[in-house]
Each structure stands twice: as C-alpha cells, then as structure tokens.
Design brief:
The chain is of the alpha+beta class. It folds into two domains: 258 residues, Zn peptidases (Aminopeptidase); 120 residues, Elongation Factor Tu (Ef-tu), domain 3, CATH 2.40.30.40. The chain has nine helices and 23 strands. The protein has a six-stranded mixed beta sheet, sandwiched between helices. Strands 4-5-10-7-6-11 form a six-stranded antiparallel barrel. Strands 17, 18, 19 and 21 form a four-stranded mixed beta sheet that branches. A hairpin with a 5-residue loop joins strand 4 and strand 5. It is globular, with a radius of gyration of 22 Å. The N terminus is likely disordered.
Length: 397
C-alpha cells in the first residue's frame, strides 16, 4: 500500500490523468476549479453555482434540481447503487441590517474566523450588482487578542458596545492565554457612505450575501491558493469525472452524481437528497484538512500535498468500513492512481446516508489553511481525485 504514495509525479508526466470525453476533448478539472471557485454562493444562496453545474452537464444526463438547489443526475439501474456528492456552498456572511450611519452589519453564514476578516475587502452581492466594501476593524485591532487578554479585557464590539473580558488567570488546559474572538454578529462593512439611504441606493438590502473579494493566487503553475477551494475542488472533480465517463458503458449498476447545498451550515442539502435517494455506497467528495504546513503537529491529519488523493478512514461523523477502504485502494492501485489513507476531524455529507444503510466512503484531496482566504491545493492531487472517481464508477461491483 505504501508504494501508492509515490506514483503521482510519474503518472502526471505520462498523462494518465488526461482522460477524454466521448467527443475526444480533454476536460480539465484544474480549469473547472479556476472558474467555479470565483462563482459566489454562500450557504443557502447557491443558485449561481447550481446554474453553473447544471449548465455544464450535457442534456443527455437529464440533470435535476430540487427546491433547495441540489443538482444531481442518475444513470443506470440495479445494484450496486453508488452515489457521489460534493457541496457547492462556501463560507461568508449575510447582511443583517444597515445602520443610520450607512454601516452594514453582518450575521454569519458559516465558519469563517471573524477576527481574520476585519480590514479585509468584501463584496456585497445585491440585486443591482456587486458592491465592494471593507469589514471595519475593531477598536484596537492592531493589538493581538492574546496581548489584550493579558491586560484584562478585549473589546469585541463597535465603539460603545459590549466587551468580552478575559482574565489573565483563566487559562486553557495547555497553559496558554485564552484567545479572544470577535463576535461575528457585530462585524460591520464600510461602503464609503455616511447614511442608510446612500447604502440602500447602492442596492444593499437585508439578506444580501457578503463574500470575501476573491482572487486566485498562483503560487506555482500547479499550486493555487484561494477562498472556497473547499469544496469547489470537490465540485470540479465530480463535474470533470461526469464529463469524461462514457455513460453508455455503465451497465448493471446505478450511479448518481450530486452537488449539494448548505453543507457548511448543517448538511441540509444532503439531508434532502437522502430523503429521496437510497444508495448502497456514498462517496462524499470534500477537502481533507491537512497539517502539512510548517507549524502544525504532524501526528494527526498529516496528508501530504502532492502525494495524491485522500481516502478518509475515520472522521468525526463516520468510520469507513475496512473492506470498502481496501476495495477503493485496490481500484486505485490497479489504475496506478496514488492515494493516501488518513484520519481527520470534521464531518461530511455522506454521513446522513448511513442511517439509511449506506456505507460512507469519503474521498478528498489534501488541503491546508481550511476556512481561510488562502486555502491551498496541488493540481496533481485534484487530477488524481478526478481519476479515482472515474475509476470507481467504472470498476465498482
């Protein structure tokens, strides 16, 4: 099994992952990711992503969409019934209200660290179009929360608002000072206006999604960092596989590919899909939060970037049956696809299907700096993940 980890560079150079569509044209998962990652779609407001995915699929696959916005298609009949799902939603905020001074107050739409957002550019997506602004820094933002905690208190609200007190004697079990956080509900976006009427004239309204102003940072031609690689990379891999597979050859089994909504806020899209679809095996395609970065402990979650796709054996929501791990590993080895088998925290969409009797077999790529603005991914890992999805569809019995 260990030798599977060393095949990536040779296989990419040999073009193993350059699978073609029925028309003979190669579908680049990397190019799909670069497009999908820039499409806005916070939890509960994924319509543009649903449109993108459904529009990219050929009409012959007869893609469906439910009331929540989940997109899926099914091919074949019989058993086994295998199901692949990646979630479309990203983290962000929602406009809560607009103050008389024209400041836009936010409420959270997922798990971004609020203190990492202040003094950063964000975009409010309104009916009139995008409106850019800056999340207002908190008072004394230049002082670290830990240093302020040592002085006795940290202000976590706007001027005149409440403060959160952190006593220097209230230490966590590791002995370090507690880290004060900024309450997400009091974050405010400054738009360069001074009245509520001016803000509303720009089109800003309650309920508008507020998303970090995204751009792709190419660290090398084959390594990118961007906001929302989680789980746009999974969406790209599933979509690329869907476009490469010769579905006319898929017989004596049933296969569903799905793109779910509202994973980050509670697996709500997957729950809706689980009510209607009853697969035998679910392959949730999502990020593996790796410790492959300089300052993190390598004893847990250490999937190495550039060493291939990741199969999660255990996470907070699921234990993958050993027989299924071995089955995936055997398919990967037969196709020359490098994989890593690792444990992680966090959950996945597939876990909601387990209560109906499905086996949950999460597939991933190694990513670092999860839920930040610089989530990082290596191209060969994405390509290997796409190849693994295709191989499972074609070989699973």
């Amino acid at each position: 099994m260990r030798r599977l980890l060393f095949f990536a560079g040779v296989l990419v150079a040999a073009g193993v992952f350059g699978a073609a569509t029925q028309s003979g044209s190669v579908v680049s998962d990397w190019d799909l990711l670069r497009k999908i990652v820039l499409v806005p779609g916070i939890s509960g407001q994924e319509r543009k992503l649903s449109d993108f995915v459904q529009g990219a699929l050929p009409s012959s696959l007869k893609a469906q969409r439910d009331a929540k916005g989940d997109v899926w298609f099914t091919v074949g009949d019989g058993r086994p019934y295998i199901f692949f799902v990646a979630h479309m939603d990203e983290l962000g905020f929602v406009v809560d209200k607009i103050t008389p001074q024209g400041m836009v107050q936010l409420k959270p739409g997922g798990g971004l660290l609020p203190q990492a957002c202040e003094a950063r550019p964000f975009v409010i997506h309104t009916a009139k179009g995008p409106v850019e602004g800056i999340i207002q820094p908190r008072p004394d933002y230049y002082r670290s929360p830990g240093a302020a905690a040592g002085r006795g208190a940290v202000r976590t609200g706007p001027p005149g608002g409440p403060t959160t007190t952190a006593s220097s004697g209230n230490q966590n079990p590791s002995g370090s000072q507690p880290q004060a956080t900024v309450a997400a509900e009091i974050l405010e976006v400054y738009l360069g206006v001074s009245t509520e009427a001016e803000a509303r004239a720009l089109g800003v309204a309650e309920g508008n999604p507020v998303i970090f102003k995204k751009r792709i940072v190419d660290l090398t031609p084959d390594i990118m960092a961007a906001r929302a690689v989680d789980d746009r990379a999974g969406c790209a891999a599933v979509l690329a596989a869907a476009l490469r597979i010769d579905w006319a050859k898929i017989r004596a089994k049933k296969v569903t590919f799905a793109w779910s909504v509202q994973e980050e806020t509670g697996l709500f899209g997957a729950q809706e899909l689980a009510k209607a679809l009853k697969p035998d095996y679910v392959f949730a395609v999502d990020t593996f939060v790796s410790t492959d970065s300089p300052l993190e402990n390598k004893r847990f979650g250490d999937a190495v970037l550039g060493k291939g796709a990741v199969l999660r054996s255990i996470d907070t929501s699921n234990v993958t049956p050993k027989a299924d791990i071995n089955k995936v590993a055997a398919i990967a080895e037969a196709r020359g696809i490098p994989i890593q088998i690792r444990n992680s925290r966090g959950g996945n969409d597939g876990s909601v299907f387990v209560v109906e009797g499905a086996a949950d077999i999460p597939l991933s790529w190694a990513g670092v700096y999860a839920h930040s603005f610089i989530e990082k991914i290596v191209r060969s890992d994405l390509e290997g993940l796409t190849a693994l999805i295709q191989a499972i569809v074609e070989e699973w019995k």
